[in-house]
Write a structure and sequence with these properties.
Radius of gyration: 22 Å
CATH architecture of the largest domain: Alpha-Beta Complex
Strand order of the largest sheet: 3-4-7-5-6
Structural class: alpha+beta
Distance between the termini: 49 Å
CATH topology of the largest domain: H-NOX domain
Length: 331
């Protein structure tokens, strides 16, 4: 983690990991709670800390004896079916256009990550370079390389395999568990993760299968390249709706001690409880405006034990009771 930023990922990928665990017969809720991720995320453009996903994919692979779990996540829900990504690549005319577009927007899906297309003479390579956060990132590398192959297959067919696959990981027999890698020459301990592809296939048209639920999806793209306080505020916003978010839980999720997080906030003249209250107030106003949820239901969704505690808090924030606030919205 850099000094100023929290590594973030679009919440749309939360759905991808949930679907993979459910397909493998694993309790998604159990593992999300275990790594301090919300169990449900409704807005694919909301932001989550990236670190817990690294723990999640390794934990499931080991605990559930699924050695290729990283690959399975990618195969069950390919990148072209990710809610935050599909609208950005769906108009690609051919493979070259698709890959160039993806390389340009990838850092807006997960940070810090860089993809590129390199001309290496007879072959081109589709590469991923990423700052390592953990040693032995086997599962995440399997996840990425599988996803990259699937991107090429959108043009070259599901039978296509790369001639050479470069992996940053040290030699590991676990790659043999993935059929997408079995027909390629595997080069371990490389400076990047990459697959080679012949130049001639770059002009092939792409066939992107867009789920019906994403065809009319038009959401504003969230910005991952934001400074620490804004990143933290985004995370608290997401966690507030599904967890009784505490300083300790948020600190653990972003890879800090509670004391360090308090100090970072103090350096910016902020307090955690004030940020949490601000998020709850915004969510409360949204629910009062745009849903028919009862006051009790809204209170529970924001972590309050009962409607009375929520009502006192809302009156403190706005000067109105939740009921009177809702009545004031009626024309």
């Amino acid at each position: 983690m850099t000094a100023n930023n929290i590594h973030l990922v679009k919440a749309a990928f939360h759905t991808q990991f949930r679907q993979a665990m459910e397909e493998c017969g694993v309790s998604a809720d159990y593992y999300f709670k275990k790594v301090k991720l919300p169990t449900e995320v409704k807005d694919p453009e909301s932001l989550l800390p990236e670190k817990p996903f690294w723990h999640l994919v390794n934990m499931v692979a080991i605990n559930e004896n699924i050695p290729d779990f990283g690959s399975r996540v990618a195969q069950i829900t390919p990148w072209n079916k990710i809610a935050s990504l599909t609208p950005l690549i769906e108009s690609s005319k051919n493979l070259k256009d698709l890959l160039e577009t993806f390389c340009e927007i990838a850092s807006g899906q997960s940070s810090p990550v860089t993809f590129s297309i390199k001309d290496e003479g007879v072959l081109h390579s589709f590469c991923c370079t990423k700052t390592l956060q953990f040693k032995n990132e086997v599962q995440m590398e399997l996840y990425r390389i599988t996803s990259m192959i699937q991107m090429i297959q959108l043009a070259a067919s599901s039978m296509w395999r790369p001639e050479i696959i470069r992996l940053r990981m040290e030699p590991n027999k676990i790659v043999n568990a993935n059929s997408l890698l079995s027909d390629s020459e595997i080069q371990f301990s490389q400076i990047d993760s990459a697959i080679t592809l012949p130049k001639k296939i770059l002009q092939l048209p792409v066939q992107i299968d867009i789920p019906d639920s994403l065809i009319t999806k038009t959401t504003e793209q969230a910005d991952l390249n934001i400074e620490f306080v804004k990143s933290l505020h985004q995370i608290i916003n997401t966690y507030t709706l599904t967890n009784n978010a505490s300083l300790e839980e948020i600190a653990d999720a972003i890879g800090m001690s509670a004391r360090t997080l308090q100090r970072r906030l103090a350096d910016n003249d902020l307090k955690f409880n004030n940020l949490l209250s601000q998020s709850k107030f915004e969510h409360a106003k949204d629910k009062l405006r745009n849903t028919q949820s009862t006051i009790t239901e809204i209170a529970k969704s924001l972590g309050y034990s009962d409607a009375a505690h929520f009502t006192r808090a809302f009156h403190h924030w706005s000067g109105f009771s939740p009921t009177n606030f809702r009545k004031s919205l009626v024309p």
